[in-house]
Structure formats: C-alpha cells, structure tokens
Specification:
The structure holds two protein chains of two kinds. Chain A is mainly alpha-helical. Chain A contains three helices and two strands, in the order αααββ. In chain A, strands 1-2 form a two-stranded antiparallel ribbon. The radius of gyration of chain A is 23 Å and the shape is flat. The relative contact order of chain A is 0.08. Chain B has a domain at 3-248 and 430-470: Amidase signature (AS) domain (Amidase signature (AS) enzymes), CATH 3.90.1300. Chain B has an eleven-stranded mixed β-sheet, with helices on both faces. In chain B, helix 4 links the parallel strand 2 and strand 3. The longest helix of chain B is centred in the last third of the chain and has 26 residues, at 364-389. Chain B is globular, with a radius of gyration of 21 Å. Chain B starts with 7 loop residues before the first helix and ends in an 8-residue tail after the last helix. Classes of the chains: A mainly alpha, B alpha/beta.
C-alpha cells in the first residue's frame, strides 16, 4: 500500500487537498489503480514505434488571414473576478 | 397517440402534410420528461425550444430531421445554454459559442430539448458520478442506465426524444446504449469534430449518435460528420451517405470474432445470444472465423495511463480563474487552485486526475506513458491485421446486462472493468456500434460491431440486417 506522504505528493501534483478522513480511502484506491497500471510494464513489445493519436493528419496549416473572434464581453462572461479589461488573481510574485 | 413513438420518416410525412407541427413534438417531449421522472436532464431548454418550434411553423420541412426534438450530452457546449459536464465546478457555466456538432444540428432545424445527465466529465460507467444525481434506467428504475452518456441513453429509451448525442472515450456511448436497448455508435476518431466538446482524453474522445434504430443512427451520423478547421484532428476523408448500405445483401461479408470477446469473463447468457447471431449470419452465408487480437488483455491499464494522463492535463484548466466555481477562501494562488478544485471535483474525477498527474510526472512519463504509447501502437497494429482480412469484428458490447444502482461504489477499478470490451476500440480509433440482440432477465443485451477506419457504412449494413432478422420488441420500457 502506498504511504500517506505519497498520496499527499500525488494530490499536490494534481492541485488537490486531501482531508485526513479521506486519506485511508485514497491510499487503497490509488494503490489499486497503480497496481493495475504496473501490468503494462511487464508486456514484451518488440516494436519501438509509438502511437500518440489515431489521427493521420499532418501539418495542418491555417491560412494567414484575420478572422473574427469572440467579443471581449463574451470572453469575460464566465469569469468571477473582473476589473476593466483584467481578471483579478492573487499576487503570484513576491 | 404519441407521435414521438413513430419512426422519423413517418413523423416527417406528418410534418410535411401539416398533420402535426414541431410544437406538438416539443410539447410531447416535455410531457414525457415529467411522466417518466428519470433525471435524464441537467438543464432543460424549454422556453427556447418552444420558441424555435413556433418559428419553424413558418418554414418549409426540408429534411428528415427537421423539427425533431434532440437531447445533447452536457459535455457538448451550447451557446447561452448552461453546460456543466455534470460537475459542480462548472455548474453555472454558460458557453459563449456552439460546438461544431451543435451548429450542424441547428442547421437541420432540430430542436434541442435539454442537456443530458452524465458521469462527471464523462468519467464513469453508470451515471452515478454526476453532481446532479443518478440517471435511472427506463427498463427498471432500480438499475443503472450505463454511462457516461447516461441521460442521452435513458431519454431515448424512454421515448422522450428519438435521437440524442453522446460522447465516447472508452465506451460511453456503446455501454449505455447496450444497457438501454438502443443503437449507439462511436465514429472513427476524426470523423466528427470535437470542437466545443469538453475534453476528457483528447486522443480518444468522439461524439456519436444514440437512437432507437440503425437507420436513424446513420441519418444523424450523416449530419454531424465532417472536417472542421477548428479541430485539427478531424478528418478530410469524404463524408459518405452512411445509410447507403442499409438493407444491402450481407452474405459476402467476412466477419471476425475475437476469442477474448467470448471468454469466461463474459456472462454466459450474453455469449449465448451472440452465438445465436453468429449462427444467423453463418446461415446467411457470411464467413465467420474466431481470431486472436494481441494485447487486448492490457486494454484497461493501457487506458488508465493514456486516458488519465490526458485527463489530468485537460482538467488543469479548471483553476477558479477564468470560469467555473468561485471559492473565496484562499490566501495565495496555490490555495485558490487547490480549494476550487477540491470543492469542485467529485471523487471519481479527483482519483483519475491524481493518477494522471502522477504517471506523467518526472521519470514516470518515460516509464509508464512512453510504454503505453508503444503498447497502443502494437494493439492497433493487431486490430489492423485482422481488419485487413475481415470486413467487421463482432462480439458483445459489455460483459453483462444493466445492474443495480449503488453496486461496488468503493471499487476504484469497477468503472474501468465495465469498459473491458469497448476501450480497445478507442485506443485504435476505430468505429464501433452497439446493437440490441436479445434479453437476459428481460434486460437488453448489446452486440458490438467494430469496423475498419471510416467504414461506418459497412457497420450499419450488418447492423440493419441483424436488426431486421431479430425484429426484437424493444418497447419493454416501464
């Protein structure tokens, strides 16, 4: 079973908080999934080729012409903290 | 008389000769929502639907889908109509543009009745991870309807709308279609634009039609298919008329049945039903062989790496800044992110993005993700080898029929194992359909028909033959 510290580390990577009362549940569930995932490490594959997407499209270039875009009011419509042309966020530099 | 129980061609005739109007269909749909009480919808579009129906009275009935009510899965964005992906984190999100598939639906003058309930961010196989409560199965309200397109399937099975759109990342159209006795297709990857579809796993997601019969499914695929310059993974492959091979002779078809799809893991009665169809096809003259497809047994861990890795990246955008849930309790940017996401996401989603973030972090990306990409290629090659020799692959869609709501809720692996037979198809990007072919304890059993890339027409050819031969009574809905 994975340790509490590892669950906290994984939650931190995903930008999530884990409550103390949830810890035991996540230890079990994340262990279960990670053990399942480990199965692919044992598969013997000769080929070195990889597949990232089923799409076979190559070099999709767009014409370099201006096109209409969403009006500014629409862009801000779903933001909760707006001042003028800006979205307010907490200070990110010291 | 209920007009919505009629087939689309008959409804179309009645609209054309003015026996009925679009508003009659819309009123019937909303009445049926109240009567059935299945929690199929997260948001209803009643006012707008009525307005549109009345406006359509002034227009000529110019296509078979004109004036028909349709239901849309709530991870497909609709301008000015709330779209939540069944998540608390988006429960007040109002899109400012339409997804490409929605534009295409509107061009045909179909009427959107509402946004259907689903598993949160399409993560689940029962509908139970929705923030807005369970969707009930119209065949038996104590059972799951399947998922993640739970509401899109339940609403068609209950006769609320004749058609709906779902999305399928690992089986989310085919599995609920199977559990609700419907025809559901996941198109070839790239056949349908993903522009405006709330992303779960971008290399697997596809939008597809859920309908009562094969012909109507093909008709809706005709409408939503096509290249879209806003989705650079959409294909320029010519859009065929997907109804063109329906009712054409199937006796020359060569069909493969993978041993893996008929193993002991699959319920015996489900297998027996598939064998009955196999016998039917053999009698018709089809060549049917049992085959091996390599690496299928690794589909679930493969999916966990690919789908959850992509999901963790796609869901990083839910940060409490530009849209979505507003949390006021934070001291710095990291707390804003963490508090918003911890309150906004449900358990299944949290678990999945944690795993995804972990397997993509540092050296793990090389160990897990890179290995998964090689495995994906090898599995896809294995499918291609079979499809070079055969027209189609068949087997069951699911390991069993619909089961009780609340089953094994603490089991983190359950929702993945429900998709045992559907996941490999998304990995390869192939098209596949679920078709009702029988019953177990009066509950529908789905057969899986997998085709070669962009050969949805051939899938419908076989499906329409089996549908006609079996002629099942699918009105067992309570």
């Amino acid at each position: 079973m994975i340790k509490e510290e590892k669950v906290k580390h994984i939650a931190d990577l995903a930008k999530l908080n884990i409550k103390d009362e949830e810890m035991a549940k996540y230890q079990i569930q994340l262990t279960d999934i990670l053990s399942e995932i480990d199965k692919i490490l044992k598969v013997d594959i000769q080929e070195e080729e990889i597949m990232i997407t089923p799409s076979t499209n190559q070099n999709c270039f767009s014409e370099d012409v201006p096109k209409p875009h969403l009006p500014k009011e629409d862009m801000f419509k779903n933001a909760k903290r707006v001042k003028g042309d800006y979205i307010i966020v907490p200070k990110v530099i010291e | 008389m209920r007009y919505l129980d009629l087939d689309i061609k008959t409804i179309n005739e009645k609209l054309k000769n003015k026996e009925i109007k679009p508003i009659d269909l819309v009123n019937e749909a909303f009445k049926r929502i109240e009567e059935t009480n299945l929690n199929c919808f997260i948001t209803l579009n009643k006012e707008e639907a009525i307005k549109q129906a009345l406006e359509l009275e002034k227009q000529e009935v110019d296509n078979l889908l004109f004036g028909l009510p349709i239901a849309i899965k709530d991870n497909i964005i609709t301008k000015d109509l709330r779209t939540t992906a069944a998540s608390h984190i988006l429960d007040d999100f109002i899109p400012v543009y339409d997804a490409t598939v929605i534009k295409k639906i509107k061009e045909k003058n179909m009427i959107i009745i509402g946004k259907t309930n689903m598993d949160e961010f399409a993560m689940g196989s029962t509908g139970e991870t929705s923030y807005f409560g369970n969707t009930l199965n119209p065949w038996d309200k104590s059972l799951v309807p399947g998922g993640s397109s739970s509401g899109s399937a339940a609403c068609v099975a209950a006769g609320i709308t004749p058609l709906s759109l779902g999305t399928d990342t690992g089986g989310s159209i085919r599995q609920p279609s199977s559990f609700c006795g419907l025809v559901g297709l996941k198109p070839t990857y790239g056949r349908v634009s993903r522009y405006g579809v709330i992303a779960f796993a971008s290399s697997l997601d596809q939008v597809g039609p859920i309908t009562r019969n094969v012909y109507e499914n093909a008709l809706l695929l005709n409408t939503i298919s096509g290249y879209d310059e806003n989705d650079l993974t959409s294909s320029k492959e010519v859009v065929k008329d997907y109804t063109s091979l329906i009712d054409k002779d199937v006796s020359n078809l060569k069909i493969a049945v993978p041993h893996y799809y008929m193993s002991d893991t699959i319920d015996k009665e489900v297998r027996e039903n598939i064998v009955k169809v196999i016998d039917l096809l053999k009698n018709k003259g089809c060549q049917i062989d049992y085959v091996d497809i390599d690496y299928l047994e690794y589909a679930i861990p493969l999916y966990q790496v690919i789908a959850l890795g992509e999901a963790s990246s796609n869901l990083a955008r839910y940060d409490g800044v530009r849209f979505g849930l507003k949390i006021d309790d934070f001291k710095n940017i990291d707390e804003l992110y963490k508090n918003t996401r911890s309150q906004g996401f449900g358990n299944e989603v949290k678990r999945r993005i944690m795993i995804g973030s972990y397997i993509l972090s540092g050296e793990n990306a090389n160990i897990y993700y890179y290995k998964a990409l090689k495995l994906r290629k090898a599995m896809t090659d294995s499918f291609k080898k079979v499809l070079n020799k055969y027209d189609l692959i068949i087997g069951p869609t699911n390991t069993d029929v619909a089961y009780k709501l609340g089953t094994k809720q603490d089991d983190a692996l359950k929702s993945f194992y429900d998709d045992l037979l559907t996941i490999p198809v998304n990995m390869a990007g192939l098209p596949a359909l679920s078709l009702p072919v029988g019953f177990k304890n009066n509950l529908p059993i789905g057969m899986h028909i997998i085709g070669n890339y962009f050969q949805e027409d051939k899938i419908y050819q076989l499906a329409s033959f089996v549908e006609k031969e079996l002629n099942l009574d699918l009105k067992g809905v309570k």
